[in-house]
Every structure is written in structure tokens, then in C-alpha cells.
């Protein structure tokens, strides 16, 4: 918000239409834009330092919206003194400043925050029990239920199968 207000103040002194700056080409819009930029600066200072709150923060969306509408109206419908001259750097800077002010207001009241964590990539550790698993069955055959006999005392037919497979 503060950055947009500062850029807007600087843009008022640069060329808006041909060789005319905002002070030369506008009658009332230049004063309104300067007042809105100063009010936005006062509001931004209040957001940064709670002890220095000169302006109620609920006014900031109206200030940013009013700035955007006023700059857009002057770009779309230039004053009669501009005489169809091309838009200059000051006009585009003021428009960018108004967009930045609106974006700052949205970020302030939307409670949007960005966090970037830069850490080393965590490599997957190999676990033998997981790596040596047999592949899953594709047939979908039901699993045979186990008998209630103990594994320490196998059935006789299981012993024969064990000897054949060995």
C-alpha cells in the first residue's frame, strides 16, 4: 500500500499527456490523487506501527478503490487540455500504483500470506521388510483361512511339503 502511494505521488510530477504532468493537465483530479496518496501513506504507517495509527484501517479499501477509479477515469477520458496527446510515463506509473494499492489492500484484509520453505530433499530410507514384499496378486483369489493349530506343531502333511520343497 505504501509503495503504491509513493509511486503515485512521483507519477503526479511526471508527464501524463505529451509534455504535460498531472498538475498542468488536471483541475481537481491531481489534488484528489495527492490527497488519496497521502491518506494511503498514513493508513500504511498505521498498519506497520500500531502506535502511529492516524487513519482507521477500514478506510483503506475506499482509498485504494477511489484511487483506482480516478486514475482509470483519467486514462479513459483525458481532460480537454490534453488535446489527444499520447499517454506518458506518469499516467502508466499512476495506473500501476493504483493496482498495487488495490492488491495491497486485498492482501491486508484477505489475510493472505506466502511462505516458502527451502530445505534439503528428504531421501526415502530403504526398509528391508517393505522392499522384500512379494508382488500383489492380480487374480483376486480369496486368502485361505489359517487353521487354529500352532505353528510350532505343524500338521503332518505340511512337514512333507516342507521336505519336498527343500
Structural overview:
By secondary structure, this protein is mainly α. It has a domain at 2-110. 52% of the residues lie in helices and 3% in strands. Strands 1-2 form a two-stranded antiparallel sheet. Helix 1 (2-11) runs antiparallel to helix 3, helix 1 packs antiparallel against helix 5 (89-110) and helix 3 runs antiparallel to helix 4 (60-76). 21% of the residues are buried.
Topology, pairings included?
Blueprint: H1 2-11, E1 15-17, E2 20-21, H2 22-25, H3 29-48, H4 60-76, H5 89-110, H6 128-131, H7 156-165
Antiparallel strand pairs: 1-2
Helix pairs in contact: 1-3, 1-5, 3-4, 4-5
Give a short synopsis of this structure.
By secondary structure, the protein is mainly α.
Question: What are the salient characteristics of this protein?
Answer:
2 strands; 7 helices; mainly alpha; 166 residues
The number of E-state strands comes to 2
- The sequence of SSEs as H and E is HEEHHHHHH
Mean pLDDT: 79
Evaluate the radius of gyration: 36 Å
Total helices: the number is 7
Order the strands across the largest sheet as they lie in space: 1-2
Whole-Å distance between the termini? 80 Å
Stretches with pLDDT under 50, minimum 5 residues: none
Please state roughly what percent of the residues sit in beta strands, choosing from under 5%, 5-15%, 15-25%, 25-35%, 35-45% or over 45%: under 5%
> What gross morphology would you assign?
elongated
Q: Please give the largest β-sheet.
A: 2 strands, antiparallel
* Helical content band: 40-55%
Judged by helices, strands and strand pairing, the structural class is mainly alpha
Amino acid at each position: 500500500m505504501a509503495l503504491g502511494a509513493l509511486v503515485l505521488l512521483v507519477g503526479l510530477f511526471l508527464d501524463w499527456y505529451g509534455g504535460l504532468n498531472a498538475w498542468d493537465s488536471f483541475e481537481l483530479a491531481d489534488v484528489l490523487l495527492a490527497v488519496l496518496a497521502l491518506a494511503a501513506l498514513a493508513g500504511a504507517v498505521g498498519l506497520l506501527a500500531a502506535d502511529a495509527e492516524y487513519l482507521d484501517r477500514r478506510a483503506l479499501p475506499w482509498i485504494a478503490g477511489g484511487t483506482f477509479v480516478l486514475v482509470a477515469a483519467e486514462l479513459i477520458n483525458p481532460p480537454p487540455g490534453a488535446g489527444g496527446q499520447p499517454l506518458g510515463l506518469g499516467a502508466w506509473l499512476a495506473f500501476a500504483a493504483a493496482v498495487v494499492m488495490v492488491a495491497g489492500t486485498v492482501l491486508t484484509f484477505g489475510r493472505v500470506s506466502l511462505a516458502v520453505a527451502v530445505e534439503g530433499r528428504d531421501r526415502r530410507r530403504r526398509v528391508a521388510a517393505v522392499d522384500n514384499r512379494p508382488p500383489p496378486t492380480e487374480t483376486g483369489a480369496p486368502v485361505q483361512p489359517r487353521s487354529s493349530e500352532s505353528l510350532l506343531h505343524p500338521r503332518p502333511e505340511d512337514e512333507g511339503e516342507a521336505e519336498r520343497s527343500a
